[in-house]
């Protein structure tokens, strides 16, 4: 006589096979997906590095600049038509989201209003011009020359300098080195008044004087 349990054995076998099959297919698809991801990563790692974008391209695209100038000169005139400010630079990129413009290798000339022959000449590696136009920030080996009619030019070097157009002042708090005829001065801070030509130095002032040598007969 056949055992009733023997009749149910094939049915249990078919049920086990049907439950194993979906798991096997899922593992197959998972393995294929992992192989595809590994292949993509491998190809990406073997690609030749792309050429580094120039400053103009990076700024115009990533920073979303709205206009760009090259080798330009901008001038702001006094009421009598004489130049008040003259700014020249290699490039200018305006960034509307930052509300400012960046200039490379700027050269700025500021004329005094009391005497058209007196001026300040400023040169730097980089400059920032906010949209409100009240200040100009210069960076990177800023060089300043005070050109006074009939006097020896005074030269100043500082890492960073701000020109305040509204108050007609120049300021630096990053250390200055000033050179005149036969003397040198170093200080931590400096304020200059464009109209009067006065320079005020503060904090850790050091002066070195070297008398001019008499001319040989």
Which secondary structure elements does this structure contain, and how are they paired or packed?
Blueprint: H1 4-46, H2 55-62, E1 67-77, E2 83-95, E3 100-104, E4 107-111, E5 119-123, E6 126-130, E7 135-147, E8 154-164, E9 169-172, E10 176-180, E11 183-187, E12 189-193, E13 199-202, E14 206-209
Antiparallel strand pairs: 1-2, 2-3, 2-4, 3-6, 4-5, 5-7, 6-7, 7-8, 8-9, 8-10, 9-12, 10-11, 11-14, 12-13
Description of the molecule:
With 217 residues, the chain is of the alpha+beta class. It folds into two domains: 37 residues; 154 residues, lipopolysaccharide transport protein A fold (Sandwich).
Domain unit count? 2
Taking all Cα atoms into account, the compactness measure Rg is 36 Å
Ranges with pLDDT <50 over ≥5 residues? 1-21, 48-61
User: What's the SSE pattern?
Assistant: HHEEEEEEEEEEEEEE
Shape: elongated
The class by helix and strand makeup works out as alpha+beta
Characterize the quaternary organization of these chains.
single chain
What is the CATH topology descriptor of the largest domain?
lipopolysaccharide transport protein A fold
């Amino acid at each position: 006589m056949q055992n009733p349990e023997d009749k149910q054995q094939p049915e249990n076998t078919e049920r086990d096979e049907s439950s194993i099959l979906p798991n096997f297919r899922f593992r197959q698809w998972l393995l294929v997906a992992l192989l595809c991801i590994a292949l993509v990563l491998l190809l990406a790692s073997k690609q030749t590095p792309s050429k580094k974008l120039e400053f103009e391209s990076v700024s115009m695209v990533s920073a979303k600049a709205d206009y760009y100038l090259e080798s330009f000169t901008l001038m702001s005139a006094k009421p009598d038509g004489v130049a008040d400010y003259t700014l020249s630079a290699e490039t200018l990129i305006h960034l509307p989201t930052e509300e400012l413009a960046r200039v490379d290798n700027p050269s700025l000339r500021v004329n005094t209003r009391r005497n058209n022959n007196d001026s300040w000449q400023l040169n730097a590696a980089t400059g920032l011009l906010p949209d409100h136009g009240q200040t100009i920030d210069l960076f990177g080996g800023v060089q300043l020359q005070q050109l006074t009619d009939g006097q020896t030019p005074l030269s100043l070097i500082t890492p960073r300098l701000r020109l305040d157009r509204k108050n007609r002042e120049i300021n630096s708090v990053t250390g200055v080195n000033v050179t005149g005829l036969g003397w040198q001065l170093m200080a931590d801070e400096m304020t200059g008044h464009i109209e009067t030509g006065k320079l005020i130095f503060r904090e850790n002032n050091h002066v070195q004087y070297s008398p001019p040598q008499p001319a040989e007969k």
